[in-house]
Amino acid sequence: MQDSTASALWANFLGSAPDWYKQTILAFLVLNPILLLVVGPTVTGWLLVGEFIFTLAMALQCYPLQPGGLLAIEAVVLGLTTPETVRAEIFGAFPVVLLLMFMVAGIYFMRELLLFVFTKLLLGIRSKAVLSLMFCGVSALLSAFLDALTVIAVIISVAVGFYAVYHKVASGKQQPDNHAHDSDDAVHDHHRLDLEGFRALLRSLLMHAAIGTALGGVCTMVGEPQNLLIASKMGWDFTTFIVKMAPVTMPVLVMGLLTCIVLELTGWFGYGAKLPESVRGILYAFDQEQSAGRSQRETQRLVVQAIAAVFLVIALAFHLAEVGLIGLAIIVLQTALNGVVEEHQIGRAFEEALPFTALLVVFFGIVGVIHDQHLFAPVIAWVLTQPVSTQPGLFFIANGLLSAISDNVFVATIYINEVEAAYDSGAITREHLDLLAIAINTGTNIPSVATPNGQAAFLFLLTSAIAPLVRLSYVRMVVMALPYTIVMSITGWASINFLL
Fold first, then answer.
1. Pair 441, 217: CB distance under 8 Å
2. This prediction's pTM
3. CA–CA separation, 256 vs 209, rounded Å?
């Protein structure tokens, strides 16, 4: 009876995750209290951060919410952070939470329009290098004015649509049939090789687009949340921010786009995959079938979605309301005008975003540990003791390294507050403060592409429905981001040292 009970408990603990993974998480939970007593809160805090990163890296073994949540709960119980600190972190980023709750769901109701537009592009552009450059460049342009999470949500929706269309046909089913595209059991043998090629193509386009959100997001004060924070601290308006950042952001943008082309032409780091002709044929047939059989009501749905998309861009560009509230308005308009009024129909739109929203809140618990244990303080103190001429470059490096393992908004907040305090005390000049602010902004935005936990958009991609479908793991994201990380980071550091 006891053996049966123990077996049941073990089977229920983290569900279908491998035994080695369960044992590792259990070891973390047991060792952390012991380490707290032996080595103290600072070392234990850093180890806890590493353990949480491990849960992200193993996202394909087990969704990080459960193991990461257990670690965050333990951190609060052990006193490494407090519920008040976690609450403050969450409410400080509440616009991001609202965005995930409502904007991603709003994009869900545009999926027909998005699939229509991007199918035309995918079929119309035969050069993979040009197609990749388009994904990267358009993502950069959109992210300069819209939120990166919104942009990546659009790209994910498109990728899922493409994958579902091909996977259904590869499994021997017709488009109207019900089909679970998360299992390859029914895929015909002669389609399996092309399916792997299609996965590789989608992986590369998703990564190009994700990098594009970082390239564009760093350029303007509305591109990323920390940009707005830094701009308000420095008293910069929209144009001033662009001009101040341009000596760094423009060279990085150019080098990033060139890297995109080189990667596609060389096929390095998992890039270069082309659209298999059989897949192209299936997508073309799907497009023709959809166009020929589109009813007046379906056409009207596309029109409504197009109008909603225009409203979305205008509302976000002019900041007519909080991003999440604009997303809620998009949901209301599209569902009301397209006849989606049943609760279960609307509920499907939230299935993708809410697990990630919960994971992000857990992440803020880990950020609370960083905050309460002052884990970054020694790094900041050391940089401020270095010669003034080397500080901007060192701030860029320090912000990049810390942002790659933590929340870049949190890192930017800590650093900008510290340098502002140094300016208020008379320790640095206004000109030097401007240089440090540029280094902080670019440092938190550019090198942080190194890991999925460096930027919310990357983490969203890793934990989205498309990642397991195209076999996009944490390690694979790190490898595919590596050439971008190296080129963009070196370019950013050199620009700060020689162009400012």
1. no
2. 0.78
3. 12
CB-based contacts of 201, cutoff 8 Å, min separation 6? 128, 273, 274, 275
Please compute Rg for the chain using Cα positions: 23
Positive/negative CA dihedral, 374, 147, 163, 205? negative
Angstrom distance (rounded) from CA 398 to CA 390: 12
Spatial distance between the Cα atoms of 453 and 407, rounded to a whole number of angstroms: 7
Asked if residue 14 lies in contact with residue 56, where contact means CB atoms within 8 angstroms, the answer is no
Best-predicted range by mean pLDDT (72-81, 277-286, 376-385): 72-81
pLDDT one-digit tens code per residue, 259-270: 999 999 999 999
Asked if 66 and 387 count as a contact pair (C-beta separation under 8 A), the reply is: no
pLDDT digits over 321-343, tens only? 887 888 899 899 988 988 887 88
Closest C-alpha to 331, from 314, 312, 355: 312
Q: Of 394, 409, 397, 399, nearest to 376 (Cα)?
A: 399
- CA neighbor of 56 nearest in space, from 400, 467, 354: 467
Q: Are 211 and 487 in contact (CB under 8 A)?
A: no
Number of other residues whose CB lies within 10 A of the CB of residue 402: 26
**CA 57 to CA 458: how far, in whole Å?**
12
Cα dihedral sign for 322, 324, 328, 333?
A: positive
Q: Residue 182 in contact with residue 491, Cβ under 8 Å?
A: no
CB 392 within 8 A of CB 248: no
Tell me what pLDDT residue 136 has. 93
Q: What angle do CA 109, 113, 119 make, to 5 degrees?
A: 130
Q: How many percent of the chain have pLDDT more than 90?
A: 36
Residues belonging to the chain: 500
DSSP symbols for 40-83: -HHHHHHHHHHHHHHHHHTTTTS-THHHHHHHHHHHHHTTSS-H
Q: Output the six-digit token pair for 440.
A: 């902080």
Q: Which H or E run includes 25?
A: helix 19-39
* Residue 472 pLDDT greater than 90, yes or no: yes
Residue 282 has a CB neighbour count (10 Å cut-off) of: 20
Provide the residue ranges of all domains of the chain, joining segments of one domain with +.
1-80, 94-220+256-264+273-353
